[in-house]
């Protein structure tokens, strides 16, 4: 299982706690994890990546294992520690404004 | 006894204010969707317990919420607003072509004729319609694909379609307004559109009386006279007696004719309300005095309504969707400010009192009169 930590606004929207788990087939990637997340929680469609083109929304970032993965290819494998469930994929609302 | 429900959208959530028909004691419910911008909430005139809310965020995009119990509980519904076909470009602030990109829903207008039909006005300017209670949305692209579309340009708040008015006698006739393209009308349910801006003059555009390019802030209509429209333009208060085919200025003795909202008394179709704002660079009331102006003559002759409103050191704004009326007798008038106050008058504007004083900045106010 892949562990995903959601930002507070999306936890409220999806009515879940801080962390959710999703199952993906094969080596996990940003795309496969987000596909599984949106399948499990359809209300999140359009909130992390756009409906058109599936591009990451500009003020959403992806962190894991103390790395910023936001600019990685959506099809790049996620770190082994995320794949094994040792570390979560963090979906973060970028710090902006007050 | 009748009841009143006031739906308030703010920068940080939605609030539902309720009172009985005396409108003296109010309950304040909320915040709903705390921390999100709620551009607009509105109830179906055919099923008043069904409410819709536009919930939006610069981080997480657009969510549409629906309530079937008058705002006690909410469920997210469809949030996919995809432009029809290849969107093309409009003009950016600097006059260069800019791709059409969906930003947010500014205004939700439930149909007067079908409880499952609702219209959404969005930024970048387009009109969407749902016929399944908000689950799916489809663009009425005849508007955006009107020949003038590539020349539309955003106002300071973005290129938003902010006003949707349906003719109560003709389901196929709709009026919409876009900042800063102007007003448009369809007579065939949204398939084709015509600009209705003849008579408008705007000094901020190259051709002051161009067919499109005007920064219309708000249009209002009384349901008993669907051919008579009132408009608060960027500058100028305007009136049309021919369904928008032509407009005349009715700013008359207003202290300034800049402003955002305009509304019509529920029972007197020639009684209209505006909130004059000093200028487009100073978005607050002139002289620091918050005054609603009322005309009982359909414009030109205006009286200041000040009783109960702050008459010194007041520097708030009242945004275009932040005024509404109830249909009780006598007519109640409501407006919200960027300072977080929601003011109500239970006597058609003669006197005012705050329902609530310290909400986040108010973006929209709608009122439901309930049995």
Describe the structure.
The complex is a heterodimer of chains A (98) and B (371). Chain A has 98 residues and is an alpha+beta fold. Chain A has a 5-stranded mixed beta sheet with strand order 2-1-5-3-4, covered by helices on one side. Chain A is globular. Helix content of chain A is 22%, strand content 20%. Chain B is built from 1 helix and 30 strands. In chain B, the strands form 8 sheets. Chain B has a 4-stranded antiparallel beta sheet with strand order 3-2-1-30, with no helix packed on it. In chain B, strands 4-5-6-7 form a 4-stranded antiparallel beta sheet, with no helix packed on it. Chain B has a 4-stranded antiparallel beta sheet with strand order 10-11-12-13. Chain A binds chain B through residues 7-10, 12-13, 43, 45-48, 50-52, 57, 59-60, 93-94, 96-97, and chain B through 34-36, 57-63, 76, 79-82.
Helices and strands, with pairings:
The complex is a heterodimer of chains A (98) and B (371).
Chain A: E1 2-5, H1 8-14, E2 19-22, H2 30-40, E3 60-64, E4 67-68, H3 80-83, E5 89-93
Parallel strand pairs in A: 1-5
Antiparallel strand pairs in A: 1-2, 3-4, 3-5
Chain B: E1 3-10, E2 13-20, E3 27-32, E4 37-43, E5 51-57, E6 61-67, E7 75-77, E8 89-91, E9 97-99, E10 104-110, E11 118-123, E12 126-130, E13 138-139, H1 141-144, E14 160-166, E15 174-179, E16 182-186, E17 194-195, E18 216-221, E19 229-233, E20 237-240, E21 248-249, E22 258-264, E23 272-277, E24 292-295, E25 303-305, E26 323-325, E27 333-336, E28 342-345, E29 353-356, E30 362-370
Antiparallel strand pairs in B: 1-2, 1-30, 2-3, 4-5, 5-6, 6-7, 8-9, 10-11, 11-12, 12-13, 14-15, 15-16, 16-17, 18-19, 19-20, 20-21, 22-23, 23-24, 24-25, 26-27, 27-28, 28-29
């Amino acid at each position: 299982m892949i562990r995903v930590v959601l930002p507070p606004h999306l936890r409220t929207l999806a009515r879940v706690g801080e962390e959710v788990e999703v199952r993906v087939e094969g080596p996990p990637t940003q795309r496969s994890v987000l596909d599984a997340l949106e399948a499990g929680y359809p209300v999140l469609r359009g909130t992390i990546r756009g409906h058109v083109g599936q591009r990451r929304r500009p003020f959403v970032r992806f962190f894991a294992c103390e790395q910023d993965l936001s600019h990685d290819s959506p099809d790049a494998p996620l770190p082994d520690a995320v794949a094994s469930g040792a570390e979560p994929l963090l979906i973060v609302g970028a710090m902006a404004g007050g | 006894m009748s009841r009143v429900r006031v739906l308030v959208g703010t920068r940080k959530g939605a609030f539902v204010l309720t009172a009985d028909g005396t409108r003296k004691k109010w309950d304040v419910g909320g915040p709903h969707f705390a921390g999100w911008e709620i551009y607009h909430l509105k109830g179906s005139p055919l099923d008043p317990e069904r409410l819709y809310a536009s919930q939006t965020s610069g981080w997480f995009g657009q969510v549409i919420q629906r309530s079937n119990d008058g705002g006690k509980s909410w469920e997210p519904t469809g949030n996919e607003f995809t432009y029809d076909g290849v969107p093309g470009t409009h003009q950016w602030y600097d006059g260069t072509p800019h791709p059409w990109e969906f930003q947010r829903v500014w205004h939700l207008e439930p149909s007067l004729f079908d409880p499952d039909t609702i219209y959404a006005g969005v930024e970048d300017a387009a009109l969407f319609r749902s016929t399944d209670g908000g689950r799916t949305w489809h663009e009425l692209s005849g508007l955006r694909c009107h020949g003038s579309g590539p020349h539309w340009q955003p106002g300071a708040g973005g290129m938003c379609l902010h006003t949707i008015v349906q003719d109560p006698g003709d389901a196929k006739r709709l009026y919409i307004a876009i900042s800063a393209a102007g007003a448009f009308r369809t007579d065939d349910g949204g398939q084709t559109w015509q600009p209705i801006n003849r008579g408008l003059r705007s000094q901020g555009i190259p051709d002051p009386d161009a067919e499109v390019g005007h920064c219309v802030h708000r249009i209002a209509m009384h349901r008993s006279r669907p051919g008579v429209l009132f408009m608060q333009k960027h500058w100028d208060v305007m009136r049309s007696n021919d369904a928008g085919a032509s407009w005349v200025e009715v700013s008359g003795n207003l202290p300034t004719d800049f402003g955002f909202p305009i509304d019509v008394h529920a029972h007197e179709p020639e009684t209209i309300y505006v909130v004059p704002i000093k200028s487009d660079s100073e978005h607050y009331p002139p002289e620091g005095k918050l005054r609603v102006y009322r005309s009982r003559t359909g414009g030109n002759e205006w009286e200041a309504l000040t009783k109960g409103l702050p008459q010194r050191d007041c520097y708030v704004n009242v945004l275009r969707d932040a005024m509404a009326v109830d249909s009780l007798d006598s007519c109640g008038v409501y407006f919200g400010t960027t300072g977080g106050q929601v003011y109500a008058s239970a006597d058609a504007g003669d006197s005012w009192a705050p329902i609530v004083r310290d909400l986040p900045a108010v973006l929209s106010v709608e009122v439901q009169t309930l049995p």
